[in-house]
Amino acid sequence: MKTLFKNPSQIITVNTNGKNLKRGSELSDINPISDHSILVENGIIKDLIPNSSSSKTAADKTFDLKDLIVLPGLVECHTHAAYAGSRANEFLMRLNGATYEDIAKSGGGIISTVKAVRNSSFEELVRILKPRIDYFITQGVTTLEIKSGYGLSFYDEIKLLQVIDHFKTHSPIEIIPTFLGAHTYPPEYQNDHKQYLDLIIKELLPYIIKNKLADSVDAFCEKSAFSSDEVDKIFTKAKKLGYKLRLHTEQFNNIGGLDVALRHKALSVDHLEVINENDIPKLSKSETVSVLLPGVSFFLDYNYAPARKLIEHNAIVALATDYNPGSSHIPNLHFIMQLAALKMKMSAEEIISAVTINSATALGLNEKLGSIEIGKQADFAVFDTKDYQEIIYNIGLNLNKYTIKKGQIIFQRAETK
Ligand code: NIG
Ligand code: FE
Description:
The chain is an alpha/beta fold. The chain folds into two domains: 2-72 and 368-412, Urease, subunit C, domain 1; 75-362, Alpha-Beta Barrel (TIM Barrel), CATH 3.20.20.140. Helices cover 35% and strands 21% of the residues. It contains 16 helices and 18 strands. The chain has an eight-stranded parallel β-sheet with strand order 8-9-10-11-12-13-14-15. It has a six-stranded mixed β-sheet with strand order 3-2-7-16-17-18, with no helix packed on it. α5 (122-138) packs across α6 (154-169) and α7 packs parallel to α8 (228-240). It is globular. Bound molecules: N-(iminomethyl)-L-glutamic acid and fe (iii) ion. The site of N-(iminomethyl)-L-glutamic acid has 13 residues, from α4.
């Protein structure tokens, strides 16, 4: 089955010349091409054909993209979208001066969402998660990572991973689960960290990989959560079992998480709002992606990660929403792209690289996703504009018109004109 996506005004290829990632100044190079059409065969990009010869191209179907621009499907590489309940009360507390950490210490924060998740059935959680996934699809997101981390018991972590797993077959996009059992210590293990670590290391890690519920592990390295030694123990076992590793680190404190993640060759280090200046060069040569989450800084009115310095030091920078009920209640990746421009001074080109090829790299999926190159999966976000700068400039407007997954149109915006 061959489909020709014909005549877009531009194709933003984010070509990597086979490198499949962009570091430092390479993020600026998104390789737009004009006067070309995209030939897709069985869900894979087969060719980029000059429009002058596209009429001679044999295809079973053609699809006209006149006056639209095509980007690689957006890859959202860091969310906590599988949650129940609301933390609107904490939002109010913060407006009145309480900090995120104060709220966590007084029993709110992550733990209040854990209670809501434990009180929700599989079916309820499925019902809650579905519209959230659909909303990402409307934005041109074709791959979506979702973490567990609000169950924090054997039963509830598995339940949450099963909810996420359900959408692998009940959603048209790729859903990537990540096991985040080490999100925080649940109340029943508050005074017995060793026993909770044992639950993660000896029971959950082996069960989850054996049952194919996730092949990535994340942890929260923070004074109020897991120490770098504890993360080291979890990562050591996880790696032996064949997991990919990711780490929430340097969000509020600097307690050695970055070094542990780099030592274990984690796929990504996420947050970095308080990364030490002297540590930035460590990311220069490393293959570990820096996933920046400006929605958290905006939502908590807190430091932004030093995007410019990371890029100057040749880091592989990606962007994500961190969509969660407590620190970034923002399911809008376009808004995150806009924050990255306004607050972190990233250019539109850098931002596009950060939400396509580099976020695919953070998931370890950059060989098949994240750019429009022959042989890659035909995942596209098609925007109703002639200039990609407009995606950043139109704050609050969704210019995505079609979301295309493996060559199939899975979302089409209703005509408003
Ligand atoms: O990435 N930092 C830890 N985890 C989330 C917040 C989760 C929550 O508050 O529910 C984050 O910011
Ligand atoms: Fe997070």
